């Protein structure tokens, strides 16, 4: 198993290219919304549900995440992206909602081009933060999942947004061919990545990806204060009616994202399997 070395010298190497991330205009996105990367497929109308725990005030708190691939798309920095609607629950209460934007290039790499995040207190809207590649000075897209991830390859930027956002996440492949079991099923030939950001150099998030499914488990190592753990508990295809409801909720979030004034609105251009 290959890991990122936690020495200060290696940490500097890990982040040495953070400010030189490839810009999207140099990448070809001819079929950008057809995201069929075998490690991170995003089919419109699918919902992933994860359950686990986080540590808050030295206490273990139940944590639930719903990751929904909508039928919405949005053009960002010249690339049409698929809109993801993500909802985060702590102890049964909604604490965060997020729109995230992904596109696949012609080589099969999945890019992350931005996100809008809202936080809540007792279900009341507290505030939102957004960054979009090409629409926030200094913000750049990054690769969320490579077409052919390999052990021994350098870390790569997943996205970059300058202060006050300070999103500097990078990832590296640390294991392949692993096995893992979660409530939804057991998987072989699992890919494991480590993610780290420049503000928490001793905190690593581990993500486990099953071929043909996507992310099935989340773990941690190091001095991660949240110590988030998640396991896939459900994976379903929404009916057209259910998807339309999610579609409407996602658009409500977009209306509150003032930075979107610089980009065209999201559009309903993708279809999902018609199920009853």
Question: What does this protein look like?
Answer:
- This protein has a 15-stranded antiparallel β-sheet that branches.
- It is built from two helices and 15 strands.
- The termini are far apart.
- The chain has one domain.
- A hairpin with a 5-residue loop joins β4 and β5.
- It is mainly beta and 276 residues long.
- Helix content is 8%, strand content 51%.
- It is globular and about 40 Å long.
Q: How many individual helices?
A: 2
The separation of the N and C termini measures 44 Å
How many distinct domains? 1
Number of strands: 15
The shape is globular
Share in helix: under 10%
Main sheet attributes: strand count, strand direction, barrel closure? 15 strands, antiparallel
Strand content: over 45%
* CA gyration radius, whole angstroms: 18 Å
Mean pLDDT: 86
Element-by-element helix/strand order: HEEEEEEEEEEEEEEHE
Which structural class matches the secondary elements?
mainly beta
Query: Segments where pLDDT lies below 50 for 5+ residues?
Result: 1-23
Keywords:
mainly beta, 2 helices, globular, 15 strands, 8% helix, disordered N terminus, 15-stranded antiparallel beta sheet, 276 residues
Write the layout of secondary structure elements.
Blueprint: H1 8-14, E1 46-56, E2 59-76, E3 79-90, E4 93-104, E5 110-121, E6 124-132, E7 140-145, E8 156-157, E9 159-160, E10 170-182, E11 185-197, E12 200-210, E13 214-222, E14 229-237, H2 240-255, E15 267-268
Antiparallel strand pairs: 1-2, 1-14, 2-3, 2-15, 3-4, 4-5, 5-6, 5-7, 7-9, 8-10, 10-11, 11-12, 12-13, 13-14
């Amino acid at each position: 198993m290959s890991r990122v070395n936690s020495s200060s010298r290696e940490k500097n190497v890990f982040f040495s290219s953070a400010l030189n991330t490839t810009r999207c205009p140099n990448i070809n996105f001819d079929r950008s919304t057809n995201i069929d990367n075998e490690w991170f497929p995003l089919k419109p109308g699918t919902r992933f549900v994860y359950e686990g725990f986080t540590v808050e005030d030295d206490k273990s708190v139940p944590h639930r995440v719903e990751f929904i691939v909508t039928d919405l798309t949005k053009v960002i920095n010249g690339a049409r992206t698929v809109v993801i609607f993500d909802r985060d629950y702590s102890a049964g209460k909604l604490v965060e909602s997020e729109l995230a934007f992904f596109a696949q290039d012609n080589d099969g790499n999945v890019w992350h081009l931005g996100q809008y995040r809202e936080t809540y207190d007792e279900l009341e809207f507290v505030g939102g933060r957004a960054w979009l590649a090409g629409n926030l000075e200094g913000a750049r897209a990054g690769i969320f999942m490579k077409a052919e991830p390999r052990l021994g390859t350098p870390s790569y930027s997943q996205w970059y947004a300058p202060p006050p956002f300070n999103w500097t996440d990078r990832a590296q492949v640390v294991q392949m061919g692993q096995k893992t079991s979660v409530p939804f099923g057991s998987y072989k030939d699992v890919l494991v990545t480590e993610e780290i950001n420049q503000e928490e150099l001793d905190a690593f998030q581990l993500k486990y990806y099953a071929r043909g499914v996507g992310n099935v488990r989340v773990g941690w190592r190091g001095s991660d204060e949240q110590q988030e753990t998640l396991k896939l508990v459900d994976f379903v295809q929404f009916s057209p009616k259910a998807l339309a409801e999610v579609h409407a909720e996602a658009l409500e979030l977009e209306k509150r994202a003032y930075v979107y004034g610089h980009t065209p609105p999201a559009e309903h251009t993708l279809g999902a399997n018609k199920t009853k």
